[in-house]
Amino acid sequence: MEYTKLGPSGLKVSRVALGCMGFGDPGRGVNPWTLDDTAAAPIFRRAVDLGITLWDTANAYGGGTSEEVVGRAIQRYTRREDIVLATKVHLPMHPGPGGSGLSRKAILEQVDASLTRLQTEYIDLYQIHRFDPDTPVEETMQALDDVVRAGKVRYIGASSMWAWQFSKLQYVAERHGWARFISMQDQYSLVQREEEREMFGLLADQGVSSLPWCPLAKGRLARPHGHRTARSAADPVGQRFFGDNDRPIIDAVHHVATERGIPMAQVALAWVIGNPVVAAPIIGATDPRHLDDAVAALDVRLTDEEIKTLEAPYTPRQPTGF
């Protein structure tokens, strides 16, 4: 495993992150492919064996049950001090005034709820899941600073928004001397590269790390075009974000992988990891082999010609995911 510092901080993380959206109670979540404690156990154990220390979840995943499964997994398979634990706040948890968004009430309520579900005294990386246009940015950033000063959170990060929104949040924090974001969790893959236009330039300028979600486009870049899985057939996110116009890109990945004699996932992830602002792609593994491919991608060095082949079919498109 390789490790890197996250953004301008001293926080060291593995260059592959374990995405925990697929873990939880299938009876309480919205995803039919959700893995409970028993089904997820081999994945957590493999993550520990491979040295994957960055585990990412969110309060809204599985209606809170993802955090519960992750909290139990840390106790069973590793030590809390060996894991960089990341979770998020914003999406609806209940209809009350503190159940969603980034108001002071919501942040203070939801951070305590996450700590309880995760069975921990602190969160390493607390991320705002989306931008909240209904709350003054000063209120949001001060509340985040307060949970850092209270010792409940070590660092803060953001996810999925326009570059101007992220810049505004960072500016307000800097102006007041509050905690600033060290990471941006954004959608980035060979089939969704719009973050390169503005966000990645901003991140490079500010020294902030990208933690790409969906780096394999919900698995579409890990298999030839037309191959479907139970998750791809039922995942509303994947169906909304990706379509048949992605086929030339998928075919390019297949071509390079075939020439190399390695899985498509390794090629697609190697391309993502090669971007200098990327710290660690988030791998939503539902099988331990998914983590093996991700770690193996760290050793794949694409040639200039291969990169041209992979990038050539891309066409501009609307950003998705926020």
Description:
With 322 residues, this protein is of the alpha/beta class. It has helices at 37-50, 65-77, 104-118, 137-149, 163-176, 199-206, 230-234, 236-241, 247-260, 264-273, 288-296, 304-311; strands spanning 3-5, 12-14, 17-19, 54-56, 84-89, 123-128, 153-159, 181-185, 209-210, 282-283. It has a single domain (3-311), classed as NADP-dependent oxidoreductase domain (TIM Barrel). Strands 9-8-7-6-5-4-3-10 form an eight-stranded parallel sheet. A two-stranded antiparallel ribbon has the order 1-2.
Task: Fill in the keyword field for this structure.
single chain, alpha/beta, TIM Barrel, eight-stranded parallel sheet, two-stranded antiparallel sheet
What is the mean predicted local confidence, pLDDT?
94
How are strands sequenced across the largest beta sheet?
A: 9-8-7-6-5-4-3-10
* Succession of helices and strands: EEEHEHEHEHEHEHEHHHHEHH
Please give the largest β-sheet: 8 strands, parallel
Q: What does the secondary structure layout of this molecule look like, with pairings?
A:
Layout: E1 3-5, E2 12-14, E3 17-19, H1 37-50, E4 54-56, H2 65-77, E5 84-89, H3 104-118, E6 123-128, H4 137-149, E7 153-159, H5 163-176, E8 181-185, H6 199-206, E9 209-210, H7 230-234, H8 236-241, H9 247-260, H10 264-273, E10 282-283, H11 288-296, H12 304-311
Parallel strand pairs: 3-4, 3-10, 4-5, 5-6, 6-7, 7-8, 8-9
Antiparallel strand pairs: 1-2
